[in-house]
Amino acid sequence: MNKSKMYVGGGMILFVLLFCLFGLKIPTIEVCYGNQSFFLTSNDFQLGWIHSVEKEPWFETYERKGGELYLTSTKFKTFGAGVPTENRIIKSNDGFIHMSVNRKMSEVTVTVSENVKTTLYTHENIIPLYQLMDDYETITVRIVKISLWGRIRGESID
C-alpha cells in the first residue's frame, strides 16, 4: 500500500471518529436547576415526593422514547383532590395505586422542597433534589441533543 492511500484512509478514519464524537447528536435527559445541570445516562427515572396534604409518598415515572419525554405511570397511596381519574389502573400488591399515563411532555418543571423530600430516582442512584438546592427552587427536566463528546465529558450523576 502506498503512503497516499494510507493518508487518505487515516484521514477518513479520523473524519468518521471526529464526526461521531462531535457531530452525532444523542437525545439525553437533562436536569436543570439554577445555573447548573446534569445529564442522566439512563432512559428513565422517577420523581418522588411526599404529598403535602395526605403526607403519603407519590411517584411519577418518566421515560425517554427516542427524542421525546413521556410520563409513563404514576403511583400513590390514596385518591384525593387533583388526582387524575381518567387513566387505567394497573393491578399491584404493594399498597400503592398504580396508573398508566403515557403522556408526552415537552419538559417537566417541579418545585423542590425539603418539606416534601423531592427526590429523583434512577436505576443506579437516589438523588435527593431537596439537598441540592434551596427550598422552593424549581428544576426542569427535558430532552436535549448533545454530542457524544459532550455526553462523555458531561456531568452525569446517574
Which radius of gyration do the C-alpha atoms yield?
21 Å
Low-confidence stretches: none
The main pleated sheet reads as: 7 strands, antiparallel
Class from helix and strand fractions: alpha+beta
Q: What share of the residues does DSSP label as strand, in percent?
A: 35-45%
The SSE order reads: HEEEEEEEEEEHEH
Question: How many helices in DSSP terms?
Answer: 3
List the strand order in the largest sheet: 6-7-5-4-3-9-10
> What is the tally of beta strands?
11
Helix content: 10-25%
Mean pLDDT: 83
The general outline is elongated
Distance between the termini: 47 Å
List keywords for this structure.
158 residues; alpha+beta; 7-stranded antiparallel beta sheet; 4-stranded antiparallel beta sheet; 3 helices; elongated
Give an overview of the whole structure.
The model has no long low-confidence stretch (mean pLDDT 83). Strand 3 and strand 4 (57-65) form a beta hairpin. It is elongated and about 75 Å long. It has helices at 3-23, 129-132, 148-153, and strands at residues 25-33, 36-40, 44-50, 57-65, 68-76, 88-90, 97-105, 108-111, 119-121, 126-128, 138-147. The protein contains 3 helices and 11 strands, in the order αββββββββββαβα. It has 158 residues and is of the alpha+beta class. Helices cover 20% and strands 45% of the residues.
